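Objective 1b. Sequence-to-structure analysis of Extracellular solute-binding protein.
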Amino acid sequence: MRYRALTWDHPRGYNALAAAAARLDEKRDGLAIAWDKQPLEGFEEHPIGDLCARYDLVVLDHPHIGEAVAQRCLVPLEDLFPEDEIAAWERDSIGPSLASYRFGGRHWALPLDAATQVTAFRADLTGGPAPATWDGVAALSDQAPVALSLAGPHACLSFLSMAAAFGEPPAVADPDRLVSAETGKRVLDLMALLAGRTPDLVRGRNPIGLLGHMARHDDVALCPLVYGYVNYAAPADPADKAIAFADAPRATADGRPGSTLGGTGIGVSIRCEVTPALRDHLRWLLGAEAQDRFIPDHDGQPSRRAAWHDDRVNARWGGFYRNTAATLEAAYVRPRHDGYIAFQAAASAILRDGLAGGEPHAAILDRLQRRYAESRTVGTER
């Protein structure tokens, strides 16, 4: 059986999957998988229904789950695997990596890859370790160039993470309210300060572009919130400087690291004819051999907790995993309702435009809340 599959265009998203597929022999193993790639922006924003109509397996981000369920384009894991196997994956996965794909009482993707926003810095430019608190980040920005990740959906994601650090994970206590006026103002005051100090050259760059810029230029010493990419901790190109990674900033030294969960899962589309051989291959990708060795050895970021604390893995990648594991364990899970993805894009534009134009922060918050409320009505309109 031959399968078409789609992932995203970066070594972290593609190399391990392609290498695993290359080990398959259709005559011997009963399946062959051809992995295509799409840009990061497509992974973040492309309609999931369209992708599932064209591919058997789709690597996706958990906020797409509500949209996928509304469009009935994915097969729930409960229809493919025994409950005890799913429960074991949940126990073994770091942080909410698998839990984030649970929606409407079922799981909709296998947690292949784990990631969240962490602090990235050049130790040769900061003169020491990354600041542990947001006050420390603000103080460092007086002395060294600091950049916020604001391109695409990341302005919104930074806002959500800061709110979580300040004790109010958005839309958790009250699913109809994004954040309180007090927390929102505190976040926007800090975002305005740091956005004003972000070098123009990196304002439009996604996390891959921002980290690549940091590796080759000396005009960004630290980005307090950017999705972690292990590849930049031990670059293959000798022209690149190694980037150090640390836990996301906290409001206080003993507080929660505020970070919004990323990572990827493998969804099985309804067009896919699932064979025992495909099930076994997916099981292997989540097993100890693949997660603790094969995936890290092929530029991927495993979702299995044990790999993040593995001495061999950390030695190979400059301590990236152990240095950021606490942030991943505490990561905030975004809303996943149908309509959330459109809100995330709109909210980022509201934040970028409002901060750049000096709009009163209360007005920015009002626009964010209105747009969030509108997103909650999408599913009721179908």
